[in-house]
Design a protein that fits this description.
Blueprint (H helix, E strand, L loop, with lengths): L1 H20 L3 E5 L3 H13 L3 E5 L2 H11 L3 E5 L7 H10 L8 E5 L5 H8 L4 E4 L4 H15 L9 E4 L2 E4 L4 E4 L2 E2 L4 H12 L4 E3 H9 L7 H15 L6 E4 L3 E4 L3
Parallel strand pairs: 1-2, 1-3, 3-4, 4-5
Antiparallel strand pairs: 6-7, 7-8, 8-9, 10-12, 11-12
Bound molecules: calcium ion (CA).
Amino acid sequence: MLRDLISALYSGRRLWLKKAMAQEKILVVEDESDLREILKSNLAKEGYSVLTAKDGEAGLKLARSEAPDAIVLDLMLPGMDGLQVCRLLKRDTLTAGIPVLMATAKAEDVDVVTGLEVGADDYIVKPFSVRVLVARLRNALRRREGVGGVEGGVIKIRDLTIDSERHEVLLKGKPLDLTFTEFRVLSLLAGYPGRVFTRDQIVTSIHGESYPVTDRAVDVQIVGLRRKLGPRGESIETVRGVGYRFRDD
Ligand code: CA
């Protein structure tokens, strides 16, 4: 009996150790070999287990066989480009849930908008520091673990409370008088702090697909929201050429 107990304790400890030591696996898809190696060694230093692929086809294969926890995906790849890779990843149930962080050469590229709309979780502009990349990865991994989101709950960010069931927003304990649409926009953005949403994604989340709303209409909602939030409205950031995000701080 004692032996059973010791054995149980031992296996429990082993399990705990395994859990504590479980490394998150990151797949880096990047065609420039220097950058690929830099990312690999730096992410490894941060404690991640790193897989690399030099083109989209190899990246897709690894994503399916290795089930990484997140993917850093270069947009400009030879052959199949990053957008196409992202589209295929998100279409496949095996890989659809893996957060994708796109790496792009230009900030205001229309590709960023397209990338977010085909399911990328975030993007980072080249050249970027490893520190920033790691911060973005941590955000993406955290979101994947279900932090944030508006389903059935209450979002609390410092002095702001959004109760999706009661359809109520409190700022410093005082209720705000928001329209239905403003409430939905705020819930979406604040539910995923740090994540950029394109105007199309905002419209879709409010009204469903193919609802005829212009980009301008989204901007008008944001203006109204910011006004009602007062100084706290600064948390809603305009990401030029892309959309909006709720600041993650
Ligand atoms: Ca490239």
